[in-house]
């Protein structure tokens, strides 16, 4: 087998392992709230939030990961001693990867319950997420060893495989908790979430023996006011799913401008394990935040990827239906999670 064919097989195996063992993820973790923690539903200063994420990873490879996520959530405010607000939303994820176009599409509903404590300085939110996901694959796009005629690949040869199905739908459940504390010019945020709580079979085969591993996600972040114009936003995120572990840490510098069309800027750098260095930038225009990031691959795969990791785009739109800003005792997300 030629060297390029060996490389193809290795890359294909990498994709195969990842799609079965890892959830989708974004480098702009705080800009995809319901993929981070369902308890973040409704944790914004306005009544409504629209979020769009788009990620293209490992473009130096053929048919690399293409991930799109869109969500909307609404906050219902209450003036009751036992409840501050309820958040409810809708999340749609779509991901495709590899020559077989392995895809995952999910539709979810996150719901949160919010309560304020300690003179409205402490916010505790409990949330859950229910939905349905479907995996799919196109076997006609795959190549098999039996289709190698001794000299080259021949698509006309039989693959001798018997596939019972090319789609698999399943119910998915997640839950989480989010805590936010504000004290003078300092804000501390923490959260933990557990995904795929129900033990669901995701095998395409009729016998079924492949189960979706549970994923634990935790984060800790803060907002430190250096002055009225400058804030430091450090954060650390940890995800674990089966044998896969991801540690993402770094900081953003936020600059606020008065009487300017683009009134807030953020720029910073994050590091993911020993895998990538992530450059991030975002800007606020009225009620819209636009964010871009780029992953520079520094792992052993950088020889094949030529250092190219992933390009990512995010859009967050915060708005009220009546266009009247409501006062809030806290600075809610996503000013910074």
Can you walk me through this structure?
The chain is mostly beta strands and 337 residues long. It has one domain: Porin, CATH 2.40.160. It is built from three helices and 14 strands. The chain has helices at 3-21, 33-36, 302-305, and strands at residues 48-57, 66-80, 83-97, 102-117, 122-136, 167-183, 186-195, 215-225, 230-241, 244-256, 262-272, 276-285, 288-297, 308-319. The chain has a 14-stranded antiparallel barrel. Strand 10 (244-256) and strand 11 (262-272) form a beta hairpin. The chain starts with a helix and ends in an 18-residue tail after the last strand.
CATH fold label? Porin
Provide the residue-averaged pLDDT: 84
CATH homologous superfamily designation: monomeric porin ompg
Kindly state the number of beta strands: 14
Largest sheet: 14 strands, antiparallel, barrel
List the helices and strands and how they pair.
Blueprint (H helix, E strand, L loop, with lengths): L2 H19 L11 H4 L11 E10 L8 E15 L2 E15 L4 E16 L4 E15 L30 E17 L2 E10 L19 E11 L4 E12 L2 E13 L5 E11 L3 E10 L2 E10 L4 H4 L2 E12 L18
Antiparallel strand pairs: 1-2, 1-14, 2-3, 3-4, 4-5, 5-6, 6-7, 7-8, 8-9, 9-10, 10-11, 11-12, 12-13, 13-14
